[in-house]
Amino acid sequence: MGRSPCCKETKTDVKKGPWTPEEDRKLIEYVQLHGHRSWRSLPENAGLNRCGKSCRLRWNNYLRPGIKRGQFSDEEERQIVHLHSLLGNKWSKISSFLPGRTDNEIKNHWNTRLKKKLLRMGIDPVTHDQLPSLANLNALLMQAANLQMLQNLVQLMSTPNKVPLLPEPCSGINPHLIDLLPLNSLLEELLVTSPLDPIVSSYDMPISCSDTHQMVPEGNLEGTECLQRDSVAAAPWQGLNLAEQEFSWKDILE
DNA sequence: AATGTAGTCAACCGCTGGCGG
DNA sequence: TCCGCCAGCGGTTGACTACAT
């Protein structure tokens, strides 16, 4: 399936950019007299130094009779939003339901106005679902922060027992080696006292050594990798560089 | 008044699928 | 069935304008 050779490959001097009134006049006159059976040959026949594609676009979007210009009415906007929720970015399909409006115009209107309008109304312009409220967003952020703390802990616990503390001034704690054993219980306590979103908690976390089963999706206990103090955490937990995290031990312990 | 920034929209680019030889 | 041509489509660009600093 070969790609159509663009005008630039056949003619090097085709004009681009905005159309002049004179070009418009030539195009209108030609189409009214001969129709537009072949856009490819039209420019030459009409005496236009333009690409056939460019002529088709100009005709379809601006010169064709019956085109409605100007502000979209509330009713039109409602229709576009509704059709978009059903059809997605099928601008040509959507335009077929709005007489006089071109796909290009609808697409531009969507991208520049309607998307923002929907966002302001708390509606996701892609899925058309209600966006999470500010309060929900806050809770999600808290959960994300908790999760990140847990990740840090798990990362540390999956390395040898003794690890250096973060260098000053990240930590306000005496910067010597500490035993990570007590962190085990701290981690479990965190998991119990900080219930996570079901989506987050269904994440395949390599933690299930004791009674923290609430972290593991129901019926999925068997395959869950048990975190060993000497083992290396599974894929989602790898690649976390503690040095890049913004949490200090002080933060975690507090 | 000059400059920077954001918004708008006409036009272009490149891909896709239909069609005919 | 394969291949090339073509129109149509959706995403992107860039010129222009309005508004803010």
From TrEMBL:
<dbReference type="InterPro" id="IPR009057">
    <property type="entry name" value="Homeodomain-like_sf"/>
</dbReference>
<feature type="domain" description="HTH myb-type">
    <location>
        <begin position="68"/>
        <end position="118"/>
    </location>
</feature>
<keyword id="KW-0804">Transcription</keyword>
<dbReference type="GO" id="GO:0080090">
    <property type="term" value="P:regulation of primary metabolic process"/>
</dbReference>
<dbReference type="Pfam" id="PF00249">
    <property type="entry name" value="Myb_DNA-binding"/>
</dbReference>
<keyword id="KW-0677">Repeat</keyword>
<dbReference type="GO" id="GO:0000976">
    <property type="term" value="F:transcription cis-regulatory region binding"/>
</dbReference>
<protein>
    <submittedName>
        <fullName>MYB protein</fullName>
    </submittedName>
</protein>
<dbReference type="InterPro" id="IPR017930">
    <property type="entry name" value="Myb_dom"/>
</dbReference>
<keyword id="KW-0805">Transcription regulation</keyword>
<feature type="domain" description="Myb-like">
    <location>
        <begin position="11"/>
        <end position="63"/>
    </location>
</feature>
<dbReference type="GO" id="GO:0051707">
    <property type="term" value="P:response to other organism"/>
</dbReference>
<dbReference type="InterPro" id="IPR001005">
    <property type="entry name" value="SANT/Myb"/>
</dbReference>
<feature type="domain" description="HTH myb-type">
    <location>
        <begin position="11"/>
        <end position="67"/>
    </location>
</feature>
<keyword id="KW-0539">Nucleus</keyword>
<keyword id="KW-0238">DNA-binding</keyword>
<feature type="domain" description="Myb-like">
    <location>
        <begin position="64"/>
        <end position="114"/>
    </location>
</feature>
<dbReference type="InterPro" id="IPR015495">
    <property type="entry name" value="Myb_TF_plants"/>
</dbReference>
<dbReference type="GO" id="GO:0005634">
    <property type="term" value="C:nucleus"/>
</dbReference>
